[in-house]
Amino acid sequence: MKKIILPVFLSLWAFMVNGLPVNNDSIRIEVLMSSKLLNDIHIDAKFIHSVDITSNRLVLLSTAEQFYVLGWGGMVPLGKKLENSIGGFAFTPDNQLMIISKDMICGLDSLGSLAKLIKLPEEGMGISAGKDVMYVYGRDKSQQKNALYLIAKGGKYAKLFEIATPVNSVVEMKDSILFASENGLFSYNLINKKINALAALTRNKEIKSIAVDTSGNSVCFSTDSMVYAIKDSRLVILVDKFGGILRLFNGGLIVFNPEKKLLVRITGLNNEYTAKTQILKTPPEGKNPADVLTNTTIINLVKAEVSDDLIINLINNSNVNFNLSIDSMIYLSNQNVSSTVIMAMKNAMKRKTSNDANSNNPK
Questions:
Q1: Is the pLDDT reported for residue 232 higher than 80?
Q2: Which of 143, 162, 194, 306 is an S-S bond match for 301, by CB 3.0 to 4.6 Å?
Q3: Which structural domains are found in the chain, ordered by start?
Q4: Helix, coil or strand: residue 267
Q5: What is the DSSP string of 186-203?
Q6: Is the pLDDT reported for residue 14 higher than 60?
Q7: Radius of gyration, CA atoms only, the chain
């Protein structure tokens, strides 16, 4: 999967998500749940933005009070009501259900009640599973800082990074973590601790969820109204009528939209990947390496309407090589790069110069 990141980095700025519409002959969409189905079985539920797959291959959904399982035989409540306590949930790598309840991670005891396990830094965090660990992340728009934490076995957690905007979704991809914030898709490298920008939608399209298909070597991401996929530097729009929370399931992609009370499974993804797609432009090899931010990178981020907070966060957490001559700064300003971003670029270059000097003159 590492080979996907390098060609995709900064390639998506060129198309601004003008991908190709879904080819209905190559993929199949199966409706697993709809508002009509819920009405027919007399379930009036306001679902939260979480979905996962149980060990016996059922889909797990929840309101703030009640879990539900969905299978081919229909949908039924699971356990008892929990009094507005469920804010999010995910299964651990060993299939234990972890539930976010206010500022705690909880499990279910033998009576079906919440059992407090781990206290979290703040309320209302999101949760997702990695291969061997769990991740929790801040998603509160009112917070000045939102952090991503890794939680290892035994309940010990460590802060990986923090940004000024909410984190909407987190998924592992080998030695990197992909995460979505506002209209941007980013990666955090667990080895060098750097954040890279992978893609951006227009400002009014917030990325809500990410899924990595290791079998197809692809990355899927979605807004409330569209689902996209990237494979081998190619972009395809899988669905242009709805979007939501993504999960891979039985060789297909689950898309859950709690507001529309709609849950579908998309199959035939590999056929769609190999159909006609838009080839993304990549920087010339040897110029503008994917892990180094340049003036062009910043201009592309601004054109993609990424917020100043996110751009500054990238600058502070990335390798940089900016040209800050007078002419270059005038050009940056003419390209609508704000003075606060330019100042962050200046500070980053000062740090780079200082670090380079220290490395060349070790004590």
A1: no
A2: 306
A3: 2-279 (2.130.10.10), 292-360 (no CATH)
A4: strand
A5: EEEETTT--EEEEEE--T
A6: no
A7: 21
Helix axes 295-303, 339-360, angle to 10 degrees: 150
Q: Does the pLDDT value for residue 355 go beyond 50?
A: yes
Q: Whole-angstrom Cα distance, residue 51 to residue 47?
A: 10
**Phi and psi dihedrals of 115, rounded to 5?**
-115, 120
Name the token pair of 207.
């990325």
Residue 309 has pLDDT above 60, yes or no: yes
Over residues 27-41, the mean pLDDT reads 90
pTM: 0.79
> What would the pLDDT profile of 112-149 be if each residue is shown by its tens digit?
899 999 999 999 999 999 999 999 999 998 888 899 99
Burial group, residue 299, by CB count within 10 angstroms (0-12, 13-18, 19+): middle
- Angle, alpha carbons 198-88-180 (nearest 5°): 10
Phi, psi dihedral angles at 314 (to 5 degrees): -65, -45
Tokens 């080979």 locate to 3
State both tokens at 259: 């507001």
**Residue (of 136, 173, 137) closest to 151 by Cα position:** 136
Residue 339's Cβ-side half-sphere holds a number of Cα atoms within 13 Å equal to 0
Kind and range of the H or E run holding 147: strand 146-151
Looking at every residue in the chain, the average pLDDT score rounds to 83
